[in-house]
Amino acid sequence: MSTKPRVAVFDFADCEGCELQIANLEEEILDLLEIVDIVSFREVMKEHSDEYDIAIVEGSIMRPMDEKRLKYIRSKAKILVALGACATIGGVNKIRNQWMPEEVMKDVYGNAKVKGNELFNVNKTKAVNEVVPVDYYIHGCPIDRDEFKHVITALALGKKPEIPTYPVCVECKKNENVCLFERGMYCLGPITRAGCKAICPTNGSPCEGCRGLVKKAETECVWEVLERYNLSYEDIRRRCTMYNYGRAECGAQ
Amino acid sequence: MEKPVYIVSKKELDSFVNKLIADQTYEVVGVQAKGERFWFAPLENATDLRLDHDVTILPPKKYFLPQYESLMTFSLEKPFDVTPASNDKPRIIIGIHPYDIIALQQSDLVYLDDQKDDFYKKRRDNTLIIGSDIETVSDRSFAGSMNTHTVNDGFDLMLTHISTETYAVTIGSDKGKALFERYAKGTKATSQELKTIEKIRRELPTKYTQKLRLDKKKWSSVLVANYHHVIWEEKSSKCVECSSCTMVCPTCYCYDVREDVSLNLKDGKRIRTWDGCMLRDFTKVGSGEIFREEIKARYRHRFFRKGNYLPERYGFIACVGCGRCGIACLPDIADPCKLFNDLEKLPSEKETSCFFIKEKTEVGEKGIIHIPRSATIKKVAQCNELDTLFELELDDKKPLGHKPGQFVEVSVMGYGEAPFGISSPPSDKPVFEIMVRKIGNVTSKLVSLQPGDKVGIRGPLGNGFNMELFEGKNMLFVSGGTGMVPMRSLINYVTDPKHRKKYKDLIILYGAKRPKEIVFMNDVEVWKKVDNMQCELTVDRCEPNECWGGCIGLITTLFPKIRADKLDAKNTIAVVIGPPVMYKFVIKCLQTLGIPDQNIWVSLERRMKCGVGKCGHCQINGIYTCKEGPVFNYNQIKRLPEAFE
Ligand SMILES: Cc1cc2nc3c(=O)[nH]c(=O)nc-3n(C[C@H](O)[C@H](O)[C@H](O)COP(=O)(O)OP(=O)(O)OC[C@H]3O[C@@H](n4cnc5c(N)ncnc54)[C@H](O)[C@@H]3O)c2cc1C
Ligand code: SF4
Ligand code: SF4
Ligand code: SF4
Ligand code: SF4
Ligand code: SF4
Ligand code: FES
Known about the structure:
The structure holds 2 protein chains of 2 kinds. Chain A is α/β, with parallel strands linked by helices. Helix content of chain A is 34%, strand content 9%. Chain A contains 10 helices and 5 strands. Mean pLDDT of chain A is 90; it is low at 248-253. Chain B is of the alpha/beta class. Chain B has an 8-stranded mixed β-sheet with strand order 3-2-6-7-8-9-1-10, with helices on both faces. The longest helix of chain B is centred in the middle third of the chain and has 20 residues, at 295-314. At the A-B interface, helix 2, helix 6, helix 7 and helix 9 of A face strand 11 and helix 13 of B. FE2/S2 (inorganic) cluster binds at residues 608-611, 613-618, 624-626 of chain B. The site of one iron/sulfur cluster (SF4) has 13 residues of chain A, from helix 8.
């Protein structure tokens, strides 16, 4: 490695849980600093520079001012990586898109005087790729640290990171779990992209689809499955709302 | 010879198991409850052992081919300090049902052939199998109809629950005998007790609710007769493409290999993980092409593999009727019992082998198959904008010993491994050449390397051309794009003054996409001067700024240029190497010229990982491109639908 890639981490609307996952690398963060130069990372440092090769963007895009900032970041970065469900698919924030922004504003702020204030000017929630092109995705809510390491080492080595395209069931089966459907529960595993090591079903909770839906999602095959287990389609649709509301409009790669 | 059988009490059996656990030489694994189901897991106490289990979620194959396995570790700084992964502790597995023992015996045939999988072999040698006769029949199993509900060998000990408080222990091997004598006390079974065991085994099939109506001997022919039936479409339209059916199957053994580099970018591991032919990217190659893209084709492939491809190759039906896939498949379309019962109503044929090559093929590399040899890059030359030629020297200074048409797997530690045709002719020196086109991770890294850098080599792999077979014949070489890479090895062999006299007239037809994609232009100039050689080039298209005085058009446009009056078609061997789309059209031209099918030779590329017929990626119907190919006689494979479709 001749020169270390310069990396900047940015956040938009989110809980910063994914950034925390990076900070949680603990000792390994020193390794990370060996292989890349972190020039901006609000969660862990004060310094900031506008010169970077890789921009890691966390959070979903809510306001016109966010779009402007994101476009600026994109113009500066050679590679843009979307970090976490908020950024890759709009995540939990997209639940809000069920209602018009005005309705939501009214519900939250009531009669407070926020009109005209740029900070309170919200659009519908967007995933990062709905505003600017994204090169690579680190999926999940929160992200999986090993996957983060995989992506960052690949980029540092000049490789294209390999992210699974198959559903969570593959990893769930490798973990030898009793399928939650067999236990009368709903699980979004069959239609959700793997890569999280099926952490939720492995710990007894159904997959909520935080890594986005795979290609074959919501087709007749899912119907068949629900029918076989006497579960309702309406219910599973509702469950999809958690992370994949209005998925048709975004669809991360 | 009858196997000795002893009788032990339940208490004695528990004490036997506890003694095994206490003796730290072995890791003791046994069947235990996992929620509503069962699994094989390390055993801490005999009371956790459940010999009344119906079926485990995963088969015991996970102890021989783990879900995630490190094949070797490497250092990126000293790329050839490769350390093969060390093996696990010796193990005893308790409670394996007969069908799973049979499945293990099947994988032995695959994994312990000429190209032995070392990791598998060590684990197999290191593991004692204590089987258990089936007590509770799984409601999805159809082992009773597959004759896999009992087994006569393949175990060290076999336990049979013969009455509430007693078990029979059948001794299956010397190792089993030693273990039993050391840790257990039993009485020799009386003839009455032997009869009880026999009765239990004989009556077991009646307990199965799932019954196969299509005899397993007929699977192959019914499949062949119905390759194009709508049933594949109908069933697969419900598939969620999760590959659970292959993950849980004791007879599935396909795998993927990837490199994991630590965050310090100093060291890494080569990891082998389970993969499955039901997954869409299973056959995806660098150029983005997916050879079995439609779910219908993948779904069908899985059943053909079980019922036709492997049976024709190894002589066993690659399904032992455990029923796991039926349980795991959410839309319930994976169960072979149901599928073959549906197929039973459809017609069958006598001919069974048409998706498989009967001839025994030669095996390229024998022995240890995973660990590459180190080689040094001697020369790097940019051939054109896209392609780079490398001269490599094996560090053990042994000649590669290849035939034209064979390939090597080249690894760049940290980036991965990829197959490349060998472009130099056979040689007694340790050097050889490959040409690399930059496509993805491995190839991009390769083209950035310099003389003196090291790479890993496995091979030569696959079948090359049998040059003696072609002696006394005219040769027609047709290559498209990078197909010229392996072709050059062949042409340079034939045009070598030492061999030239053995072959008659030579014709080379060579097409590239654009003038700048032509490879080996220097060689072409030399070939043009060879006696009795006709050499024709074409490009698909040419930008105004490119200088090209030759022919423009697809490779087929070169055929009319062959001096047909001179061509003795019956005595001509045609060799075709190029991109997948090219074959259909070129072969038609060759047939028009009157060249018989058995004189046509092709080299096919597919997605490859192992290069030795294990990982499953390169399969075209029943053949492995890496093992039976990449060089094939057209006559042998023209009936394989997946080859040229
Ligand atoms: C028998 C054979 C001979 C070949 N000869 C040559 C040659 O002489 N020169 C040349 O430039 N290329 C050759 N190829 C193609 C070359 O192997 C691929 O371009 C290469 O694997 C791409 O790897 P990558 O890591 O750069 O691409 P990626 O897209 O990063 O590939 C990822 C993985 O997919 C697999 N893969 C991708 N493409 C192919 C492919 N076409 N075939 C098999 N596996 C693939 C590899 O396992 C690789 O590790 C040959 C392929 C085969 C099967
Ligand atoms: S993806 Fe989840 S953890 Fe990550 S920032 Fe968004 S809400 Fe937080
Ligand atoms: S629990 Fe969920 S992820 Fe696991 S196999 Fe069942 S459906 Fe798939
Ligand atoms: S199991 Fe589902 S919800 Fe849980 S981490 Fe994985 S993708 Fe996300
Ligand atoms: S388990 Fe069923 S749904 Fe999943 S890939 Fe296999 S056939 Fe398709
Ligand atoms: S195909 Fe199904 S029934 Fe047959 S061995 Fe595999 S998992 Fe068992
Ligand atoms: S089976 Fe692995 S490459 Fe052919």
